[in-house]
Write a structure and sequence with these properties.
The structure is a single chain. By secondary structure, this protein is an alpha/beta fold. 30% of the residues lie in helices and 20% in strands. The strands form two sheets. A seven-stranded parallel sheet has the order 3-2-1-4-5-7-6, sandwiched between helices. Strands 9-10-8-11-14-13-12 form a seven-stranded mixed sheet. It starts with a strand and ends in a 16-residue tail after the last helix. The radius of gyration is 19 Å and the shape is globular. Helix 1 crosses helix 11, helix 6 runs parallel beside helix 11 and helix 7 packs across helix 10. The protein folds into two domains: 123 residues, NAD(P)-binding Rossmann-like Domain (Rossmann fold), CATH 3.40.50.720; 160 residues, Dihydrodipicolinate Reductase, domain 2 (2-Layer Sandwich). The protein is built from eleven helices and 14 strands. Bound molecules: NADPH dihydro-nicotinamide-adenine-dinucleotide phosphate and N-acetyl-L-glutamyl 5-phosphate. The site of NADPH dihydro-nicotinamide-adenine-dinucleotide phosphate has 30 residues, from helix 1, helix 3 and helix 11. One of its GO terms (cellular component) is cytoplasm. GO terms for molecular function: N-acetyl-gamma-glutamyl-phosphate reductase activity; NAD binding; NADP+ binding. It is an enzyme of class 1 (oxidoreductase). It comes from Pontivivens insulae. Belongs to the NAGSA dehydrogenase family. Type 1 subfamily.
Length: 341
């Protein structure tokens, strides 16, 4: 038996990645694909790399017959997503890839996103979508809120260390480099080739909105209030995020905590002590690579994590969650090796 799924926002980057992954998933079939400006177009015209697939034409959300659809991926801007998700019929399970339902406290959402929540009545039932940390809740959820891609990258490195108490929670500095596909497909001046290529720069200053996700999840893991310093930088590459976490602790204890936490996690690979990961080694995959390198200064440690923002950072994570919600094997459709070079 296969489950029918819809992708709302199928003409965007995460939508394309979902189609690519689901196309070879044995337990899922694509029942509907939705877009806004591109409604009425074929996937072949919007994404020529997917033209070999036999797929439904893009339609507006209100044109979909939801009766045969089991699960919807909402890959939309966050405010729009809240409205669209609220209008879906109750029998449809939802994985929202946006920031719309990630922050448990609507006042915190309003503070960081500058906009009132448009689906308040659904917020309480939303489960945070970092699969490795919310697996049991996700299995029983109707609405899952996918983690931000920067947030996911930092959390894979830091959450086990905060839970194990092997780092100082008051001294966490996260520096990230992020590929431009993280900004989505819609045209933006700051994302032009001439603005992004041949250099790098920090963005989201003074405080990037994913800081709110870090504060929420890090405080929960540490059992005390945690406020991180987080700076993302745009790198001239399409995919990938690398996080360098500067922490205080004992490097061997930190490495041991990561090895122990991820021993049974198929997508989380902890490199041997002293090795650092690279975005090019996880490209196109659902894997996250983690590394620990001690500094020459005693007690100063670098914790690295690398993932593909369009895969483990959004669409791969969403598919992993869909597998959990539909009672399918968690790794189904996700075990392909990264693309290299
Ligand atoms: N890119 C990334 O790495 C990550 C993205 N996310 C989040 O996932 C979501 C999708 O991101 P991404 O794919 O990059 O975004 P894109 O900008 O590439 O795509 C957005 C999609 O939303 C559709 N859309 C926009 N407005 C409306 C509307 N009013 N009604 C219906 N559909 C609409 C667009 O349709 P059309 O093309 O027809 O206008 C398009 O299909 C965002 O919330 C993003 O923040 C989360 C983690 C990582
Ligand atoms: C390069 C770039 O602009 N990246 C995006 C991250 C994309 C993401 O995770 O966005 P949401 O939280 O909106 O889902 C950013 O930093 O805002």
């Amino acid at each position: 038996m296969t489950h029918s799924v819809a992708i709302i926002g199928a003409s965007g980057y995460t939508g394309a990645e979902l189609i690519r992954l689901i196309a070879t998933h044995p337990g899922l079939r694509i029942g509907a694909l939705c877009a806004d400006r591109k409604a009425g177009q074929t996937i072949a015209s919007v994404f020529p790399h997917l033209r070999h697939l036999d797929l439904p034409t893009l339609v507006k959300v209100d044109e979909v017959d939801w009766s045969g659809i089991d699960l919807a991926f909402a890959a939309l801007p966050h405010g729009t997503s809240q409205e669209v998700v609220a209008a879906l019929p109750d029998h449809v399970k939802v994985i929202d890839l946006s920031a719309g339902f990630r922050l448990r406290d609507p006042a915190v959402y309003e503070k960081w996103y500058g906009d009132a929540h448009r689906a308040l009545h659904l917020q309480d039932e939303a489960v945070y979508g970092l699969s490795e940390f919310y697996r049991d809740e996700i299995k029983n959820a109707r609405l899952v809120a996918g983690t931000g891609c920067n947030a996911a990258t930092g959390m894979f490195g830091m959450l086990p260390l905060l839970s194990a108490g092997v780092i100082d929670p008051d001294e966490i500095i996260l520096d990230m480099v992020c590929g431009v596909s993280g900004a989505g497909r819609a045209a933006k001046e700051a994302m032009l080739h001439s603005e992004v290529s041949e250099g790098t720069h920090p963005y989201g200053l003074p405080v990037h909105r994913h800081t709110s996700e870090f504060d929420q999840e890090f405080s929960k893991a540490a059992g005390q209030k945690v406020e991180v310093v987080f700076t993302p930088h745009l790198m001239p590459a399409n995919r990938g995020i690398l996080c360098t976490g500067h922490v205080r602790g004992d490097a061997d204890a930190i490495h041991a905590a990561l090895v122990e936490r991820y021993a049974d996690e198929p997508f989380c690979v902890v490199l041997p002590m002293g090795e650092a990961p690279a975005t090019r080694h996880v490209r196109g995959s659902n894997f996250v690579h983690l590394g620990v390198v001690a500094d020459r200064k005693p007690g100063r440690v670098r914790v690295f994590s690398a993932l593909d923002n369009l895969n483990k950072g959004s669409s791969g994570q969403a598919l992993q969650n869909a597998n959990l919600m539909l009672g399918l094997p968690e790794t189904e459709g996700l075990m392909m090796a990264p693309m290299f070079p």
